[in-house]
Amino acid sequence: MPICTSLPLFSRSSFLVQRYILLEFFSPFLFSVVMMGCILTTGFVLFNLLEQSVQFQIPFTLALQIFLARIPEMLFYTLPMASLLGSMLAFSRLSGDGELLSLRMMGWSFYQLLMPLMLGGCLLALLAIILNETLLPASAYSARQLLHYAQTRQPEIPVLQSHLVFRQIESGQLKYLLYAKQADKKYLYDLVLQIFEPENSVSLLQSKRASLQDGQWTFYSGKIFKSSSDGRFQSVDFLKFQYPLQLSTQKIMQESRLPLEMSLSELHQYIQDLEASGQNVSALKVRWHQKIALPMTTLIFIILGAAMGARTLSSRLQGFGFSLLLIFVYYLFFALGTAMGDSGRVSAWFAAWMADGLTALSASFLAWKRNQWG
User: Fold this and answer.
1) Pair type for strands 161-170 and 233-243
2) CA distance 331 to 315
3) Which DSSP string do the residues of 66-100 spell out, in sequence order?
C-alpha cells in the first residue's frame, strides 16, 4: 500500500525513474541475447553444419557463408526469449535490492514501472518485424541455396511439388480442372485435364508430361477422351498435343522459396496465386499470421518476465530455468495451434495467435496480481 500519492507520469522525476528501469533492463537483455543466441545457434546451426561439412566435404569458406546466413534467423527467434529472461533478471535485481518496494511506497504502481519495458518491448517487436521483412527472407534463402550447392554442387534449388490441383472458373462456371501428380519449374507430370465445354460436353486428357511456353500448353504421350451430349465417348492417342489452356500455373511451378524466405507481401501474393488455382492454403495462411504473432511475443514476454521477476530470484540460473520452462510451454501451445491451423480445424489467425493470447492472459493476470499485492 503506497504511503503517498503517485508521482505525475510525465514529470522529470518519473522520467528519470523510467529511464533508470530501462537502463537496468538493457544489460541483462544483452546478456540474454548472447546466451540464448549461442544456445540456439549451436543447437540448430553449428552441430548440423559440422555434420554436413564432414559428410559432404564442405570447404571452410562455404561453411562460414552458410553459418553467417543463418544468423538473422537465429536472432529473430532469440529476441523474444532474451526479452523474457532480460526483464525477469532486471526486475529480480530491483526487487532483491529493495528498489521496487521503495518505488511502490513512493506511490508508483506496478503498471507505471512496466511502462518503460513495454516501450522497449514495442521497439523490439518492431525491430523483429523489420528483420523478418528485410534481412531474414534473403538470408534464409541464401543459406538454403548455399547448403544445396554444398551438397549437390548444383547452384539452383529444384522445385518439386506433389498432388497439385488447378481450376479455372469463368462466369460462375467451372471451365478447367487439372490434376498433376508432380510438378517442377518446367513440367507437370502424370496429369489429368478435364475441360468443361458448352452444351454439357466434357473432354478428358491424360498425359505423362506437359509444359507451358508462350501461353501454349504442350502435352506429351497421352490420350484424349471426348464425350458428346448424347453420352457417346471417343478416344484418341497422341505423342504430342498443343492446347491454348488459360491456366495461371507458372508462378506456382516456379516458386521455390519457403514461407520463412518470403516477406509478408510476397507470401500474401503466393497465397492468392495458390487460392486462384484451387490449392489448399491453410498452412500458408497460418505462416502468414505467425510472421506477425512471433515478433509480438517479445512484448508479451517482457511483461511476463517482469511480473515473475518482481518476486526475487535466488540466482541468474534460476531465472534461466524459469525462462526455459515458460518458453517450452509457449512453444508447446504454438505447435498445437500450428497443427490445428494446418489441418483446417481452426482459423489461421486463431492458430497463429493462440499461444500469444494465452501467454498475454497469463502475463496480464500476474501483472495485475503484482500491482494489487506487490
Assistant:
1) unpaired
2) 25
3) HHHHHHHHHHHHHHHHHHHHHHHHHHHHHHHTTHH
The C-alpha cell 452444351 sits at: 199
- Which of 278, 197, 173 shows the shortest CA–CA distance to 245? 197
On whether the CB atoms of residues 195 and 202 are closer than 8 A, the answer is yes
Looking at residue 11, its pLDDT comes to 65
Torsion of CA 38, 44, 49, 54, to 10 degrees: 110
In angstroms, the CA 364 to CA 29 distance is 21
Cα–Cα distances (Å) from 10 to 15, 21, 94, in that order, read 6, 15, 22
Compute the Cα dihedral for 354, 360, 363, 364 and give only its sign. negative
Domain boundaries, the chain: 12-152+287-373, 161-253
55 three-state secondary structure: helix
Burial level of 312, CB count in 10 A (0-12/13-18/19+)?
middle
- pLDDT number for residue 182: 86
What whole-number distance in Å separates Cα of residue 271 and Cα of residue 48? 31
Q: What is the mean pLDDT of each run of 10 residues along the chain (374 residues)?
A: 48 82 94 95 94 94 96 97 95 89 87 93 97 96 93 78 76 80 85 78 85 83 81 84 73 73 92 78 96 97 94 74 92 97 95 98 94 75
Q: What are phi and psi of 5, to 5 degrees?
A: -70, 155
User: Does the CA dihedral 143-144-149-154 come out positive or negative?
Assistant: negative
Give every CB contact of residue 370 below 8 A, 6+ residues apart in sequence: 110, 307, 310
Cell numbers found for residue 60: 571452410
How far CA 91 is from CA of 30, 124, 322, in Å, comes to 15, 18, 14
Query: Whole-model pTM?
Result: 0.82
Question: How much is the CA Rg of the chain, to the nearest whole Å?
Answer: 28
Q: Which residue has the cell 482459423?
A: 347
